[in-house]
Each structure stands twice: as C-alpha cells, then as structure tokens.
Amino acid sequence: MALTARWHGDETRWLALRLLPGEDLRAELEAAFASAREEEAMSAGFVAACCGSLHSAALRPAGRDEPLQVPGPLEIVSLSGTLSLDGPHLHMAVSDEEGVMRGGHLLAGCEIRTTAEIVLGLTGAARFHRPLDVRTGWRELDFG
C-alpha cells in the first residue's frame, strides 16, 4: 500500500523566488526551505513551478553514480521534487540550443544564467523526511 500524507490547501504557504545570475539552483532551493523551516516551522515542501536558464547543469541520471555535466547555455524545461527535513529530492530536465534534452537528479553546481523563476508550496501540516528504505537501498520519502 502506498504511503500518503494529507493536509488542507489553506495550510499551504506559497513562496515565489527569482534567482539571479551566478546563483546555484540547488543551494538556493535548500536555503529557501531552511529559512522557511526556521521562520515559520515549515516541515514539508514541493516544487510547484520552475522556468529559467543555466550556464551548465550537473545531473545524476538513473543508474549512474557519477554526475553528468551538461554544457550550456541551457533552458530549464522542468523541475520537480520534494523538500524534506533530511534534504531535497529534485529532478530536472534541461534543453540545449538544439533542443536536445537531458535530465536526472539535480545536483549542486547548476549556475543560473539569466534567471530562474520558482514557486514552492510549503506546509507545517505534514512532515517529510527520508529514512533509509531497506527495500531500495536509498533514503526514500516518508511522512510523519
């Protein structure tokens, strides 16, 4: 059976961010969630929307242990994932100037080229965390 967490929509706080050239996408998302945790006791979050551009991307595609460095310039086509007390789990797809797309886990080292416009949904009504799941060998999302 799937694990579920539920909360009322009015218990979600929306946070819009605009990142500037040179900022690191993952680091800024982690900092925004850490600030929301400290200031407003937010304990779970998710990426609702994102668009923008990068100088290059650092991704970890499925089945690969080492980072994949994708040279830019790049457009952020999609960013999705969760923000938890134990860290984020974020997936990103980017396209190059030919429209060729690459994707995987978002890693540190994705420098903003012109901007990144991001909307986060945050709540204190649920608690996201990532204990080790012995079935997968990975730290997977759990609710408390």
Automatic annotation (TrEMBL):
InterPro entries reported in the protein's UniProt record: PPC_dom
Annotated ranges, domain PPC: 9-144
UniProt KW Mitochondrion keyword: no
Pfam families the UniProt entry points to: PCC
UniProt keyword list: DNA-binding
Any coiled-coil regions, as ranges: none
Any one GO MF annotation of this record: DNA binding
PANTHER family: DNA-BINDING PROTEIN, PROTEIN, PUTATIVE-RELATED
Protein name: DNA-binding protein
Organism: Pseudoroseicyclus tamaricis
Lineage: Bacteria, Pseudomonadati, Pseudomonadota, Alphaproteobacteria, Rhodobacterales
